[in-house]
C-alpha cells in the first residue's frame, strides 16, 4: 500500500513539474493584421474623416416626399445607378388622382359654358325672335285694321257701332302694338348676345377651376419621387406599404426619422470630409501647400488625397460614430479632400477614416 502511494506521489510530482515547464514557455506574438495609421508628415495634424459623395455643395442628396402617403412601389434598389428623372419611389395617389379628374371635369364644364356665352346669339334663337317680331307685326296690323274699320263705321253712323266695341278694338290695337314692341326688344336682346358681365364672370369661374385643376395635377406629380440628377442609390429606408411624410421614414432601429432615399454620386467619385479641432486650426498649412493622407481602418492602405476646399465655418463637433464622450463644447473646421479614382479600393459613403494633414 505504501509503495502504491509512493508511486502515485512520484507521478503527480513529475506531472506538476511538466505542467509548470509547459506553462512557462512564452509563445511568440502573432503578426498584426494591419499596421496602425502613422503620421507621414513632420508636425502633421490628425483629423477624423468620413467618406461622402463628390458634391459641389453639401454631402449626399437626401430625398424627402413633399406629400405624406403610403409607399406603393419602389422600382429601384440600393446600389443601382439611376439617371436624372428616373422614378425612385411611388406613393399611393388614388385619392389625389380622383380629385384631379373631378376638377378637370369641372373646368371643362365651365369652359363649355363660357364658349356657349361667347357664341351667342344662337342662329336658331335669333330666327325664333325674328319670327316672333313678324307675328307681332301681323297681329298689330290686324288689330289696327279692325280699329280703323270700327272708327270708320262709327263716323258714318254712331248708332251702328257701340261705344264698347269701339273701345275694345282700340284696346286690342294698343295691346298688339305693345306686344310688337316687346318682341322687337326681345329680338334686339337676342341679337346682342350674352351680357359682357356674364361672360366676365364665367371667365373668372373657368380660370379659378382651371387653376385648381392645374394645382391638383402638380400636386399629383409630387406622389412620384424622381432622381434630381444622375447618381447611385445609397439607401432606401422605407418598404412597400409603409407610411412616409415630409419628415422622412421611421427607422425602427434608431427610433427616429431618416431620409426616404439617399442618392449620391458613383463610388468612383468620393470625397473625404475631415473635421479639424479648432485648437489645431492655427497649425494648418496654407491651402496651396496643404497635403493629406488617408488611412483606411482595418487595413494598411494609405491613400494621398487631393485638396478640394475648406468650409469656412467652425461648427460644433458631430458624432461620426455615435460614441462622443466630450463633455465640453468642442468645435471643428470641416475640410474636404477628393479620393483618387481606383477600382481596387473598396470604399463606401459613410465610412470612417483616419486622415493626417501636413505640407
Account of the protein in words:
By secondary structure, the chain is of the alpha+beta class. Among the domains are: 45-54 and 266-358, Elongation Factor Tu (Ef-tu), domain 3; 61-91 and 225-264, Beta Barrel (OB fold (Dihydrolipoamide Acetyltransferase, E2P)); 121-193. Helices cover 38% and strands 25% of the residues. The protein is built from five helices and 17 strands. The strands form three sheets. The chain has a six-stranded antiparallel β-barrel. The protein has a six-stranded antiparallel sheet with strand order 6-5-3-8-9-10, with no helix packed on it. α2 (94-118) runs antiparallel to α5 (196-221) and α3 (123-156) runs antiparallel to α4. The chain is rod-shaped and about 185 Å long. 19% of the residues are buried. The mean pLDDT is 86.
CATH homologous superfamily title of the domain at 45-54 and 266-358 = Efflux pump adaptor protein, beta barrel domain
| Highest CATH level, the class of the domain at 45-54 and 266-358 | Mainly Beta
| CATH domain fold name of the domain at 45-54 and 266-358 | Elongation Factor Tu (Ef-tu), domain 3
What structural class should be given to the helix and strand makeup? alpha+beta
Radius of gyration: 47 Å
**Element-level helix/strand string:** HEEEEEHHHHEEEEEEEEEEEE
